[in-house]
Specification:
35% of the residues lie in helices and 17% in strands. The protein folds into 3 domains: 115 residues, Rossmann fold; 229 residues, pyruvate-formate lyase- activating enzyme; 82 residues, Beta Barrel (OB fold (Dihydrolipoamide Acetyltransferase, E2P)). Strand 11, helix 12 and strand 12 form a beta-alpha-beta unit. The C terminus is likely disordered. The radius of gyration is 24 Å and the shape is globular. A 7-stranded mixed β-sheet has the order 17-18-15-14-13-16-19. The relative contact order is 0.11. It is an alpha/beta fold and 481 residues long. Helix 8 runs parallel beside helix 9 and helix 12 runs parallel beside helix 13. Its cofactor is [4Fe-4S] cluster. This is tRNA-2-methylthio-N(6)-dimethylallyladenosine synthase.
Length: 481
């Protein structure tokens, strides 16, 4: 969701007349924007560390501006300017559309602008967007969250759930497909609760089925659902809609009923495992991933063993595992029974070791299978050295495959046979069995040609501080005289 917000910030700035800074020159850019998260404590530390490293650069560059937005800005508000008085703009989660105006106002008035809206001013999908990918796109279907999990500060920062009109969602998807996009991911803080705001409990399954009728849309994914709202009609829609991929990210958080109750998660172990069983019955090849928190206040060794039990039973393809991070402003932050760091670390390492073993075992089952991959861009960091390309299987597993003799573009589809499995990726070391050129590949090629003459990417992440690469030697023009 933050990546998609960053795409909107990029689109807003470009529409306002800004142009992308050259690759690797964040510290020498005219404007640097941080889009922040507040889920874990290290986000705070990284932000202030990077703001500190930018301070001397800004002092030496009159006119340079720094803006901080997102959840941390919504939470800390005036604190950011107090800790880092060289920041020019602070904006929150509800008013990202104001960024260009706030930058201009800060420039004219020569003082920091802090503007935090308490509620959503306009659904963010109405804002211009500079998408990172030509062939895959995020589509927000709701913002905010109505849950009250005791460890999470997001509802306080993103507000109550607000659903988007189904017609608007489908119109955006059709427009994206018209531009060449072949894969979309539906986004929501609690994506399968879609419909609660409009009074239709089956609205999400209906939306999935409607996506199945859009010609040219090859792959549909969604994230992140909540077990409480994961109903049988959603499972049926996934299984019966060909372009909805056999992939599910289902946050567990804990396998202990006692801890789940303390977390204020409205399901228990039996309910969670029952969902997994139904999904596997409807889609035997589905890849299921999860989120798990280790060391929640009051978690006993027995509670932790219940989490390990669920991991063994569910056999997740992969799991995003986190050590509990105390967030000021959440009920869990003041609970009794805060777990010592060394105990949390020990449990975390045991959980990771178990999940690594399961991930590897599950990936080994893919060896010998023939899969269709959507070719990806930037997924394989070693592809150049290994003479490989990378792609995503229907269940979203990452596959590195031998580069074929014919041209293959991101967004195209290749058919390969899996020959080797690692815990976090698969290899297809033989020859590619088939290449299907797609409209998505055409879109990537067209976009690449358009971008070739201008700098790449508006950089709205963490700055890379350091000496920029030297400019190329000028030839012709004034340099010739």
């Amino acid at each position: 969701m933050n990546v998609h917000d960053s795409e909107r910030l990029s689109g807003l700035l470009e529409e306002a007349g800004y142009v992308p800074a050259p690759e690797g020159s964040d510290g020498d850019a005219d404007v640097v924007v941080f889009n922040t998260c507040a889920v874990r404590e290290n986000a705070d530390n990284r932000l202030y560390g990077n703001l500190g490293r930018l301070a001397p650069r800004k002092a030496s560059r009159p006119g340079m501006q720094i803006a901080v937005g997102g959840c941390l800005a919504q939470k800390d508000r005036d604190t950011i300017v107090k800790k880092a008085p060289w920041v020019d703009v602070v904006f929150g989660t509800h008013n990202i559309g104001k960024l260009p105006v706030l930058l201009e106002r800060a420039r004219v008035q020569e003082e920091a602008q802090v503007e935090i809206a308490e509620s959503l001013e306009a659904f963010p999908s109405t804002l211009p967007t500079r998408r990172e990918s030509a062939y895959a796109a995020w589509v927000s279907i709701s913002v905010g969250c109505n849950n009250t999990c005791t460890f999470c500060i997001v509802p306080a920062l993103r507000g109550k759930e607000k659903d988007r009109r189904t017609g608007d969602i489908l119109a955006e998807i059709e427009a994206l497909v018209g531009e060449g996009v072949s894969e979309i991911t539906l986004l929501g803080q609690n994506v399968n609760a879609y419909g609660s705001d409009i009074g239709d409990r089956e609205a999400f399954s209906k939306l999935l089925r409607a996506c199945g009728t859009i010609e040219g849309l090859e792959r549909v994914r969604f994230t992140s659902p909540h077990p409480r709202d994961f109903t049988d009609d959603v499972i049926a829609a996934m299984a019966e809609t060909p372009n909805v991929m056999p992939q599910l990210h289902m946050p567990l958080q804990s396998g202990s009923d006692t801890v789940l109750k303390a977390m204020r998660r409205s399901y228990r172990q039996d309910r969670y495992l029952g969902i997994i069983e139904k999904v596997r019955a409807a889609m035997p090849d589905a890849a299921i991933s999860t989120d798990i928190i280790v060391g929640f206040p009051g978690e006993t060794e027995e509670d932790f063993e219940q989490t390990m039990h669920v991991v063994r039973e569910a056999r997740f393809t992969n799991a995003f595992t986190f050590q509990y991070s105390k967030r000021p402003g959440t009920p869990a932050a003041t609970m009794d029974g805060q777990i010592p760091k060394e105990v949390v670390q020990s449990r975390y390492e045991r959980l990771v070791a178990l999940q690594e073993e399961i991930s590897w075992d599950e990936n080994k089952k893919q060896v010998g299978r023939t899969l269709e991959l959507m070719v990806a861009e930037g997924e394989g960091r070693k592809d150049g050295a290994t003479h490989r390309l990378s792609g995503r299987a229907p269940d979203n597993r990452l596959v590195h495959f031998t580069k074929p003799d014919q041209e293959v573009r991101p967004g195209d589809v290749v058919t390969v046979e899996i020959t080797y499995a690692a815990p976090h990726h698969l290899l297809a070391e033989g020859a590619v069995l088939d290449v299907r050129r797609t409209r998505a590949g055409d879109a990537w090629e067209k976009r690449n040609a358009q971008e070739a003459a201008k700098p790449a990417g508006v950089m709205l992440g963490l700055p890379q501080i350091g000496v920029p690469a030297p400019l190329p030697v000028a030839t012709g023009g004034c340099a010739a005289h």
